[in-house]
Backbone:
């Protein structure tokens, strides 16, 4: 079975994501929100499709400004569903807007989205999935697992012999007892 560490290096889209983002600890709420939005939008599609549309997502969702996205109204929904640069799926668009509002609430109760994640860490993947399903929209096992691996909360983003793995370990990802 191929691993992302086998496929990504040298690829114009996967390579930079693999080498500089995937699995690295993320504490910034805007970056966490972006990653959640991208994972939600990847459902049913290839990660390459999402990476190629990433800049369009940034423009469409106001650079993932949580407060601005949470305030999106019907005009914004219509705009998003007409934007060929992103994935025009009503359920995904609605989930992104709803989840921005959830993150606002998490900031009130835990100081930040990262604070909420840290508060619940460590959990098993199954426990995380149950928590995310109770808290957010459009967050099944694959989306939650990839989101948490990609942001350093669950292991498995890289093979142990991948050079990037050692860089991540030096940063103390949550899954490694940090």
Residues:
């Amino acid at each position: 079975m191929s691993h992302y560490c086998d496929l990504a290096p040298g690829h114009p889209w996967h390579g930079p994501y693999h080498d500089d983002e995937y699995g690295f600890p993320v504490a910034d709420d805007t970056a966490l929100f972006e990653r959640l939005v991208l994972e939600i939008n990847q459902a049913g599609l290839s990660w390459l499709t999402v990476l190629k549309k990433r800049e369009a997502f940034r423009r469409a969702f106001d650079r993932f400004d949580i407060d601005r996205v949470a305030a999106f109204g019907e005009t914004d929904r219509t705009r998003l569903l007409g934007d060929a640069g992103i994935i025009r799926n009503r359920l995904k668009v609605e989930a992104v807007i709803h989840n921005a509002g959830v993150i606002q609430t998490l900031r009130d109760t835990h100081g930040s989205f990262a604070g909420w994640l840290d508060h619940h860490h460590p959990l098993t993947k199954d426990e995380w999935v149950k928590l995310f399903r109770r808290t957010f929209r459009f967050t099944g096992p694959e989306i939650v697992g990839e989101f948490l691996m990609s942001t350093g909360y669950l292991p498995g983003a890289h093979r142990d012999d991948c050079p990037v793995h050692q860089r991540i370990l030096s940063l103390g990802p949550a899954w490694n007892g940090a």
